[in-house]
Amino acid sequence: MATKNPSAPLPFTTLIHMIIVKLSSANYLIWHSQILPLIEIQDLVGHVDGSIVPPPKFDSPNSQTPNDKYLAWKAIDQRLLCLLRSSLTEEALAEIVGFSTAHGVWLALETTFNHKYKTREIHLKDELQSMKRATRSVTDIARVFKGFCDQLHTIGRLVDNPDKVHWFLCGFGAKFSSFSSAQMALAPLPSFVDLVSRAKSFELFQKSFEPVASPTVVAAFTITGRNWQQRNQPHWRTNPGRQPRTSG
Question: Are 124 and 148 in contact (CB under 8 A)?
Fold first, then answer.
């Protein structure tokens, strides 16, 4: 009984449906890690990395008879080219106009989006390391900080916990110096989630030392102010039955 070859190429329609993420300037590494295994399954890596050189178009230099090997190569290459195109956003498609081979398209995408990805990675890391708390609450700065970390994760650059803890604490400044030093001295370092929770508690602890007028003082001030106002009002205002005298 015949058995199926496990390494047989997958149908083209199956490959199309296996593409979930389409390439844009923000997800090159994720797209690359998705599309490359599909190309490897089809044993077509040589078409994108240039190791498979296209055969001559004709049987001989002076012949106009098409070379069967070239026709076979072109059929496979165009099939792969269609697969690559189907994995691109409109933004990415604009970068491959004029390229007619899978190898040419692959190089164009790598040159364009790998550079953009690297630039974006540097920008996001700069944002993380330069964040300052200023007058923002711990909750607000933690939300913004986590947003930058999530964007780095989206482009395939996960920020490890030590860097995350260090950069987050650096943004608090001198007011949190004792707290930051205590956290960095811990072994192992706390997770980012635990660190945010501790920073919120420390923030509340600091607020407890801020001078706040007690209710008794506020009430006394209010009563004193009212008495002073009454003493300084004209006598006829405090005694409605008496009218102010007018000159004859």
Answer: yes
